[in-house]
Design a protein that fits this description.
Layout: H1 7-20, H2 23-28, H3 35-41, H4 46-74, H5 77-95, H6 100-128, H7 131-162, H8 166-186, H9 201-209, H10 215-245, H11 250-274, H12 280-304, H13 308-334, H14 341-365, H15 372-390
Length: 400
Amino acid sequence: MNTNLKLGNKIWLVFILGTISATGPLSIDLYLPALPEMTRDLSAQPSLIQLSLSACLIGLALGQLISGPLSDKYGRKKPLMIGFFIFGLVSLMIAYSSSVYLLIGLRFIQGLAGASGQVLSRAIASDMFSGPLLTKFYSMLSAVNGIFPVISPVIGGFMIRYVEWQGIFILLAVIGFVLVLALWLGIKETLPQEKRISGSPGKSIGQMFKLLKNSRFVRLVLATGLVSGGLFSYISASSFVFQNFFHMSVQNFSLLYALNGIGIAIGSVIPGALAGHFSEAGQTKVILTSTFITSVLLTLSALFLNNLLLVIILVFLTVTQFGMLFTLTTSIIMNLTLHNNGGLSAMLGLSQNAIGGVMSPLVGLMGTGTYLPMSVAIMGCMGLSLFLFSTIHNSQRSLS
């Protein structure tokens, strides 16, 4: 493990990995302010437009099952560069689509391609660090990643004022191609030949699926995925809740969404500051409990108050705790004493994106006339996550 990186090199590494791991925020948050316009322009139901969000999430989940284990065999750098080249190309194709069903299909492929950034940023970090150092590094990584949910909707909201929604996907194409160049010039291979899985590509994929034989690992990954389910329940419903139900303008919603992105970034860095003083498992149980309580209060407000200021406060507290949980659970999983970090990261990403992909249209089908479906979905995800995590021993080492 490389624990002696110079500060400048570490900052550069955090910046690059934080950017490539932001495939989700770039693919989702940037076009959130455009969802109502896309619904009208494509003459589609809100649930169908939200399905484009789910398609991307499912692509992000399944794509990690490809790039993760293949990186255990071929190294981290090549799959990253190929993934982002395809991401840029498909983004251009989306900009010229005129059918909601074509949009959904292309978004799925976009997710498949962009998945390499999410899964391999975690794998590269775990190639280089372990223990509390890994938690601290993930805190910095999540903070950089958290910048994109802040700036993406602001940029998207600004763009919608002057260009059609297609311009957002042209910007995504440019970002994809620029990242290919940045990876080529700015990242060294972190998985040496002697540490790679030998044999056919199928062997590395098989090693990944062997993880499912460990019931404790499965419960931990599902608990982590449910946190993403709660987050994407908020993401998929937020534009409809605040713009339609509370009658916010596109610009005000973008600023509010950016504020919540800041909350996620703030939450992400807290576990790093506490690493070495409190165990990751202990912190996780406390924050899962407090997040569940917050979601209960949000649900009660939907039933009895419908007060905008109260909703803003409760949502901010909820997403801030999401940021803490993502850092903590990622560190716990990636600190497991296993050798196929790419496959390990892929299973984590599968759970996060698949459950998020299921929750997004489910919230839409439950209705957009109130924020009760959003709050109930968050409460359900957090309650189940807390239950699953409570069945796991405090020591993360006992999971390996």
